[in-house]
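User: Second chain of the day. Same drill as before.
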Amino acid sequence: RFDFIATLPNDGIVTQTPEGDVLVFSRSATASRSLGRELGALRAVAILEWGELLFATDQGVYLVGDDTVRPSPLAEALGGDIVTDLMSVPGPTGRYDVWIAGERGLYLWREGELFTLRPGGLPPAAARLSFGAPIDGRPAVWVASGSWVYGLVSMDETVRAHPALNLEDRQV
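Assistant: Same format as last time:
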């Protein structure tokens, strides 16, 4: 049984057992490695373009390399906001962007800079994130927050919000 599981684009899998053990597997190799129980409860995992993993847990944000686990500088940049979800996706420059949902807001980490996103009246806090389905031919980050589901499209220097669905008055 697992309390958390995530797949990674490099054929990896990250799991967490009910006892708190974090395991990183490679599907192409039989090896796995244990990161122990010190990180806290996993909330989200993203892979960075240079191969390190970014873990969001209930105790903070961590960078996980081949032989190291260390606090991420993002934790300080987020000003104490607790990360609820994150993911990395190819950005408009060809490098990875890291999209971060926090309890207080929505953020984009691009090329070493953290930007706070204010999606035009749409709720940004404690969101869940997904990537893929395009808007106007461009890949979008999909955000579920409050009663809204909306898409964010990253342009060269801007992010456009596209309201898609308000479930406030619907029975689901």
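Residues 33 and 39 are 14 Å apart (CA to CA).

User: Great, on to the next one.
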